[in-house]
Protein backbone atom coordinates (compact mmCIF):
# COMPACT_ATOMS: atom_id res chain seq x y z
CA UNK A 1 0.00 0.00 0.00
CA UNK A 2 1.44 3.38 -1.02
CA UNK A 3 0.60 6.72 0.60
CA UNK A 4 1.84 10.01 -0.89
CA UNK A 5 1.87 13.45 0.68
CA UNK A 6 3.56 16.71 -0.38
CA UNK A 7 5.61 18.80 2.08
CA UNK A 8 7.90 21.72 1.08
CA UNK A 9 7.48 20.66 -2.55
CA UNK A 10 9.21 17.36 -1.82
CA UNK A 11 7.65 14.03 -2.54
CA UNK A 12 8.05 11.49 0.19
CA UNK A 13 7.16 7.92 -0.40
CA UNK A 14 6.07 5.73 2.47
CA UNK A 15 5.54 2.04 2.12
CA UNK A 16 3.44 0.21 4.69
CA UNK A 17 2.84 -3.48 4.69
CA UNK A 18 -0.15 -4.69 6.77
CA UNK A 19 -0.76 -8.38 7.50
CA UNK A 20 -3.76 -9.50 9.68
CA UNK A 21 -4.57 -13.05 10.62
CA UNK A 22 -8.10 -13.71 11.92
CA UNK A 23 -9.15 -16.96 13.58
CA UNK A 24 -12.81 -17.70 14.27
CA UNK A 25 -14.38 -20.64 16.04
CA UNK A 26 -17.83 -21.69 16.92
CA UNK A 27 -19.36 -24.29 19.20
CA UNK A 28 -22.73 -25.84 18.45
CA UNK A 29 -24.71 -27.28 21.32
CA UNK A 30 -28.01 -29.11 21.63
CA UNK A 31 -30.20 -29.67 24.65
CA UNK A 32 -33.05 -31.98 25.53
CA UNK A 33 -35.51 -32.04 28.39
CA UNK A 34 -37.19 -34.84 30.27
CA UNK A 35 -40.36 -34.46 32.33
CA UNK A 36 -38.35 -33.52 35.42
CA UNK A 37 -36.71 -30.56 33.71
CA UNK A 38 -39.84 -28.49 34.08
CA UNK A 39 -39.34 -28.53 37.83
CA UNK A 40 -36.00 -26.75 37.55
CA UNK A 41 -35.37 -23.02 37.30
CA UNK A 42 -35.23 -23.25 33.50
CA UNK A 43 -37.80 -20.82 32.12
CA UNK A 44 -38.24 -22.78 28.90
CA UNK A 45 -41.51 -24.73 28.67
CA UNK A 46 -41.75 -28.43 27.94
CA UNK A 47 -44.14 -29.21 25.11
CA UNK A 48 -45.40 -32.50 23.78
CA UNK A 49 -46.79 -32.78 20.28
CA UNK A 50 -48.36 -35.66 18.43
CA UNK A 51 -46.73 -36.35 15.09
CA UNK A 52 -49.78 -38.07 13.64
CA UNK A 53 -52.07 -36.33 11.17
CA UNK A 54 -55.87 -36.30 11.17
CA UNK A 55 -55.99 -38.82 14.01
CA UNK A 56 -56.32 -41.70 11.52
CA UNK A 57 -53.52 -44.00 12.64
CA UNK A 58 -53.60 -47.34 10.91
CA UNK A 59 -53.05 -50.55 12.84
CA UNK A 60 -49.43 -50.94 13.83
CA UNK A 61 -48.61 -47.25 13.41
CA UNK A 62 -46.71 -46.02 16.42
CA UNK A 63 -47.92 -42.84 18.09
CA UNK A 64 -44.81 -40.72 18.57
CA UNK A 65 -44.39 -37.86 21.00
CA UNK A 66 -41.66 -35.25 20.86
CA UNK A 67 -40.49 -32.88 23.55
CA UNK A 68 -39.33 -29.52 22.26
CA UNK A 69 -37.05 -26.99 23.93
CA UNK A 70 -38.33 -23.58 22.85
CA UNK A 71 -35.87 -20.77 23.64
CA UNK A 72 -37.07 -17.24 24.02
CA UNK A 73 -40.26 -18.00 25.94
CA UNK A 74 -40.49 -17.31 29.65
CA UNK A 75 -43.84 -19.04 30.07
CA UNK A 76 -45.84 -21.60 28.14
CA UNK A 77 -49.18 -19.99 29.02
CA UNK A 78 -50.61 -17.11 26.97
CA UNK A 79 -49.99 -13.76 28.64
CA UNK A 80 -52.80 -13.01 31.05
CA UNK A 81 -54.14 -9.80 29.57
CA UNK A 82 -56.73 -7.51 31.08
CA UNK A 83 -59.56 -9.87 30.15
CA UNK A 84 -57.91 -12.86 31.83
CA UNK A 85 -56.99 -10.83 34.88
CA UNK A 86 -60.67 -10.02 35.21
CA UNK A 87 -61.52 -13.73 34.98
CA UNK A 88 -58.90 -14.60 37.59
CA UNK A 89 -60.28 -11.92 39.90
CA UNK A 90 -63.75 -13.50 39.65
CA UNK A 91 -62.31 -16.98 40.22
CA UNK A 92 -60.56 -15.79 43.38
CA UNK A 93 -63.83 -14.32 44.63
CA UNK A 94 -65.75 -17.56 43.97
CA UNK A 95 -63.09 -19.88 45.38
CA UNK A 96 -62.46 -17.80 48.50
CA UNK A 97 -66.18 -17.89 49.26
CA UNK A 98 -66.45 -21.66 48.53
CA UNK A 99 -68.96 -20.86 45.80
CA UNK A 100 -70.32 -22.95 42.92
CA UNK A 101 -70.49 -19.85 40.74
CA UNK A 102 -73.32 -17.92 39.08
CA UNK A 103 -75.26 -20.99 37.89
CA UNK A 104 -74.46 -23.26 40.84
CA UNK A 105 -72.77 -25.75 38.49
CA UNK A 106 -69.12 -24.63 38.68
CA UNK A 107 -68.78 -22.84 35.34
CA UNK A 108 -69.94 -19.81 33.39
CA UNK A 109 -69.98 -18.86 29.70
CA UNK A 110 -67.76 -15.95 28.70
CA UNK A 111 -68.49 -15.05 25.08
CA UNK A 112 -66.58 -16.27 22.03
CA UNK A 113 -63.43 -18.37 22.02
CA UNK A 114 -60.08 -16.58 22.31
CA UNK A 115 -57.64 -19.11 20.86
CA UNK A 116 -53.86 -18.70 20.79
CA UNK A 117 -50.87 -20.78 19.70
CA UNK A 118 -52.54 -22.91 17.02
CA UNK A 119 -50.52 -21.70 14.02
CA UNK A 120 -48.02 -24.58 14.27
CA UNK A 121 -50.51 -27.34 15.08
CA UNK A 122 -51.90 -29.61 12.38
CA UNK A 123 -55.22 -31.43 12.43
CA UNK A 124 -55.05 -34.25 14.97
CA UNK A 125 -52.03 -32.73 16.74
CA UNK A 126 -51.83 -31.67 20.37
CA UNK A 127 -49.49 -29.85 22.74
CA UNK A 128 -49.28 -29.88 26.55
CA UNK A 129 -47.14 -27.30 28.33
CA UNK A 130 -45.77 -26.43 31.76
CA UNK A 131 -44.96 -23.01 33.19
CA UNK A 132 -41.69 -21.82 34.75
CA UNK A 133 -42.73 -23.24 38.12
CA UNK A 134 -43.38 -26.70 36.70
CA UNK A 135 -47.16 -26.39 36.91
CA UNK A 136 -49.49 -27.63 34.20
CA UNK A 137 -50.14 -24.78 31.78
CA UNK A 138 -52.03 -24.45 28.48
CA UNK A 139 -53.12 -27.61 26.66
CA UNK A 140 -54.10 -27.38 22.99
CA UNK A 141 -55.41 -29.85 20.43
CA UNK A 142 -57.06 -29.83 17.02
CA UNK A 143 -59.65 -32.55 17.52
CA UNK A 144 -61.21 -34.81 14.90
CA UNK A 145 -64.26 -37.04 14.78
CA UNK A 146 -62.08 -40.14 14.34
CA UNK A 147 -60.39 -39.48 17.71
CA UNK A 148 -63.77 -39.15 19.38
CA UNK A 149 -64.99 -42.35 17.70
CA UNK A 150 -61.90 -44.36 18.67
CA UNK A 151 -62.11 -43.25 22.31
CA UNK A 152 -65.63 -44.62 22.83
CA UNK A 153 -66.04 -47.46 25.30
CA UNK A 154 -63.47 -48.14 27.99
CA UNK A 155 -61.03 -45.59 29.34
CA UNK A 156 -57.97 -45.25 27.10
CA UNK A 157 -55.36 -44.96 29.87
CA UNK A 158 -54.68 -44.36 33.56
CA UNK A 159 -54.83 -40.79 34.92
CA UNK A 160 -51.43 -39.34 35.81
CA UNK A 161 -50.59 -37.40 38.95
CA UNK A 162 -50.45 -33.71 38.03
CA UNK A 163 -47.59 -31.59 39.39
CA UNK A 164 -47.94 -31.04 43.17
CA UNK A 165 -50.68 -33.68 43.48
CA UNK A 166 -51.83 -33.41 47.13
CA UNK A 167 -51.50 -36.29 49.55
CA UNK A 168 -53.47 -37.39 51.36
CA UNK A 169 -56.59 -37.00 49.22
CA UNK A 170 -59.40 -37.32 51.77
CA UNK A 171 -62.82 -38.84 51.22
CA UNK A 172 -65.43 -36.19 51.94
CA UNK A 173 -69.14 -35.44 51.75
CA UNK A 174 -70.12 -32.54 49.45
CA UNK A 175 -73.72 -31.31 49.41
CA UNK A 176 -74.70 -29.40 46.27
CA UNK A 177 -77.16 -26.56 46.63
CA UNK A 178 -78.15 -26.87 42.95
CA UNK A 179 -79.41 -30.45 43.25
CA UNK A 180 -79.79 -30.98 46.99
CA UNK A 181 -77.77 -34.17 46.60
CA UNK A 182 -74.64 -35.20 48.47
CA UNK A 183 -71.51 -36.66 46.89
CA UNK A 184 -69.43 -39.13 48.92
CA UNK A 185 -65.90 -39.74 47.64
CA UNK A 186 -62.49 -38.22 47.09
CA UNK A 187 -62.11 -34.45 47.38
CA UNK A 188 -59.75 -34.22 44.40
CA UNK A 189 -59.74 -35.70 40.91
CA UNK A 190 -56.84 -35.91 38.47
CA UNK A 191 -58.61 -33.59 36.09
CA UNK A 192 -57.86 -33.74 32.35
CA UNK A 193 -57.32 -30.43 30.58
CA UNK A 194 -58.27 -32.24 27.34
CA UNK A 195 -60.42 -35.26 28.09
CA UNK A 196 -60.08 -38.95 27.31
CA UNK A 197 -63.41 -38.76 25.46
CA UNK A 198 -61.96 -36.18 23.05
CA UNK A 199 -58.30 -37.17 22.65
CA UNK A 200 -58.27 -40.83 23.66
CA UNK A 201 -54.93 -42.39 24.61
CA UNK A 202 -53.08 -39.22 23.64
CA UNK A 203 -54.62 -37.51 26.67
CA UNK A 204 -52.45 -39.70 28.93
CA UNK A 205 -49.06 -38.90 27.39
CA UNK A 206 -48.13 -36.10 29.81
CA UNK A 207 -48.77 -35.14 33.42
CA UNK A 208 -49.13 -31.58 32.13
CA UNK A 209 -52.53 -32.53 30.70
CA UNK A 210 -53.73 -32.95 34.29
CA UNK A 211 -54.42 -30.52 37.12
CA UNK A 212 -55.60 -30.98 40.69
CA UNK A 213 -59.33 -30.40 40.43
CA UNK A 214 -62.01 -30.66 43.08
CA UNK A 215 -64.70 -33.21 42.35
CA UNK A 216 -67.24 -30.50 41.39
CA UNK A 217 -64.63 -28.76 39.20
CA UNK A 218 -64.49 -32.02 37.28
CA UNK A 219 -68.18 -32.87 37.01
CA UNK A 220 -70.16 -29.93 38.37
CA UNK A 221 -73.04 -30.35 40.78
CA UNK A 222 -75.16 -32.46 38.41
CA UNK A 223 -72.49 -34.46 36.50
CA UNK A 224 -72.89 -32.13 33.50
CA UNK A 225 -71.16 -29.01 34.83
CA UNK A 226 -67.58 -27.99 35.51
CA UNK A 227 -65.13 -29.42 32.98
CA UNK A 228 -67.80 -31.86 31.77
CA UNK A 229 -69.83 -28.99 30.34
CA UNK A 230 -66.94 -27.98 28.08
CA UNK A 231 -66.20 -31.58 27.08
CA UNK A 232 -69.84 -32.30 26.29
CA UNK A 233 -69.95 -29.21 24.07
CA UNK A 234 -67.47 -30.96 21.76
CA UNK A 235 -68.91 -34.45 22.28
CA UNK A 236 -72.43 -33.32 21.37
CA UNK A 237 -71.11 -31.77 18.16
CA UNK A 238 -69.54 -35.09 17.11
CA UNK A 239 -72.74 -36.95 17.96
CA UNK A 240 -74.77 -34.66 15.71
CA UNK A 241 -72.16 -34.64 12.90
CA UNK A 242 -71.04 -38.29 12.45
CA UNK A 243 -68.06 -38.88 10.14
CA UNK A 244 -67.63 -35.13 9.63
CA UNK A 245 -64.33 -33.74 8.38
CA UNK A 246 -64.82 -30.64 10.54
CA UNK A 247 -62.19 -30.19 13.24
CA UNK A 248 -62.41 -28.51 16.64
CA UNK A 249 -59.73 -26.25 18.15
CA UNK A 250 -59.73 -26.95 21.89
CA UNK A 251 -57.62 -25.02 24.40
CA UNK A 252 -57.56 -25.21 28.21
CA UNK A 253 -55.60 -22.72 30.33
CA UNK A 254 -55.40 -23.21 34.12
CA UNK A 255 -55.19 -19.94 36.08
CA UNK A 256 -53.10 -19.64 39.25
CA UNK A 257 -52.54 -16.94 41.86
CA UNK A 258 -48.86 -16.22 42.51
CA UNK A 259 -46.97 -19.35 43.57
CA UNK A 260 -50.07 -21.43 44.32
CA UNK A 261 -49.87 -25.01 43.06
CA UNK A 262 -53.61 -25.64 42.65
CA UNK A 263 -55.36 -23.57 39.95
CA UNK A 264 -58.32 -21.39 40.91
CA UNK A 265 -60.01 -22.50 37.71
CA UNK A 266 -59.50 -22.93 33.98
CA UNK A 267 -60.48 -21.17 30.77
CA UNK A 268 -61.64 -23.56 28.04
CA UNK A 269 -61.83 -22.11 24.51
CA UNK A 270 -63.62 -24.19 21.88
CA UNK A 271 -64.12 -23.40 18.20
CA UNK A 272 -65.14 -25.70 15.35
CA UNK A 273 -63.77 -25.10 11.86
CA UNK A 274 -67.33 -24.54 10.55
CA UNK A 275 -67.92 -21.97 13.35
CA UNK A 276 -70.90 -23.90 14.73
CA UNK A 277 -69.10 -23.92 18.10
CA UNK A 278 -67.42 -20.70 19.16
CA UNK A 279 -67.41 -20.33 22.93
CA UNK A 280 -65.31 -19.72 26.01
CA UNK A 281 -66.14 -21.63 29.20
CA UNK A 282 -64.69 -20.63 32.57
CA UNK A 283 -64.54 -23.51 35.08
CA UNK A 284 -64.37 -22.87 38.84
CA UNK A 285 -62.06 -25.05 40.96
CA UNK A 286 -64.01 -24.70 44.17
CA UNK A 287 -66.14 -26.83 46.47
CA UNK A 288 -69.18 -25.87 48.49
CA UNK A 289 -68.63 -26.00 52.24
CA UNK A 290 -64.89 -26.78 52.10
CA UNK A 291 -62.06 -24.25 52.16
CA UNK A 292 -59.13 -25.25 49.96
CA UNK A 293 -55.55 -24.10 50.54
CA UNK A 294 -54.47 -23.44 46.94
CA UNK A 295 -50.79 -23.29 47.89
CA UNK A 296 -50.60 -26.79 49.35
CA UNK A 297 -53.81 -28.56 48.34
CA UNK A 298 -54.77 -29.11 51.98
CA UNK A 299 -58.28 -28.24 53.17
CA UNK A 300 -60.50 -27.96 56.22
CA UNK A 301 -62.62 -30.90 55.03
CA UNK A 302 -63.93 -33.28 57.66
CA UNK A 303 -63.18 -36.89 56.62
CA UNK A 304 -66.34 -38.74 55.62
CA UNK A 305 -66.14 -41.64 58.07
CA UNK A 306 -69.55 -42.88 56.95
CA UNK A 307 -68.51 -43.16 53.32
CA UNK A 308 -70.54 -45.92 51.68
CA UNK A 309 -68.36 -48.57 49.96
CA UNK A 310 -68.33 -48.35 46.17
CA UNK A 311 -69.98 -51.77 45.72
CA UNK A 312 -72.92 -50.72 47.89
CA UNK A 313 -73.13 -47.24 46.38
CA UNK A 314 -73.31 -48.70 42.88
CA UNK A 315 -76.45 -50.70 43.75
CA UNK A 316 -79.46 -48.68 42.53
CA UNK A 317 -82.56 -48.36 44.66
CA UNK A 318 -85.91 -49.31 43.08
CA UNK A 319 -87.24 -46.25 41.28
CA UNK A 320 -90.79 -46.92 42.52
CA UNK A 321 -89.69 -46.77 46.18
CA UNK A 322 -87.93 -43.42 46.61
CA UNK A 323 -86.71 -42.57 50.07
CA UNK A 324 -85.47 -39.33 51.52
CA UNK A 325 -81.92 -40.65 51.48
CA UNK A 326 -82.08 -41.82 47.87
CA UNK A 327 -83.61 -38.60 46.60
CA UNK A 328 -81.25 -36.34 48.49
CA UNK A 329 -78.01 -38.29 48.59
CA UNK A 330 -75.78 -39.13 45.67
CA UNK A 331 -73.34 -41.86 46.61
CA UNK A 332 -71.13 -41.56 43.54
CA UNK A 333 -68.37 -44.13 43.52
CA UNK A 334 -64.85 -42.78 43.69
CA UNK A 335 -63.69 -45.53 41.32
CA UNK A 336 -62.66 -44.67 37.77
CA UNK A 337 -65.47 -44.44 35.22
CA UNK A 338 -65.34 -43.51 31.56
CA UNK A 339 -67.93 -40.75 31.90
CA UNK A 340 -65.90 -38.73 34.37
CA UNK A 341 -62.90 -36.68 33.35
CA UNK A 342 -59.68 -37.84 35.01
CA UNK A 343 -60.67 -39.21 38.41
UniProtKB/TrEMBL annotation:
This is Prophage Lp1 protein 2. Residues 323-343 have a biased composition (Low complexity). Residues 1-29 form the signal peptide. Residues 178-272 form the Type VII secretion system protein EssD-like domain. The keyword Signal applies. Pfam families: Endonuclea_NS_2. Keywords: Signal. It comes from Lentilactobacillus kosonis. The keyword Signal applies.
Amino acid sequence: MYIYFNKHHKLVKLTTLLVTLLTAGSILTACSLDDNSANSSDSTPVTQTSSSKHGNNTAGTQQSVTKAHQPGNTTSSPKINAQRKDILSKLVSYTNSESAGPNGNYYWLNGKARLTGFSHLGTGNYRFTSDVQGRSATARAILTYSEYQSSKGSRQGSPLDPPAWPTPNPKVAITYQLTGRTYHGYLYNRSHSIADSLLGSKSYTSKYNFTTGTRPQNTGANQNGGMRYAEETAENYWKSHPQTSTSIDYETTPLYVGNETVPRGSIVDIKSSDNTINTEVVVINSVEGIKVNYKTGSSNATPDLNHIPAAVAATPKPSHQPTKASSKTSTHSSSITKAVNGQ
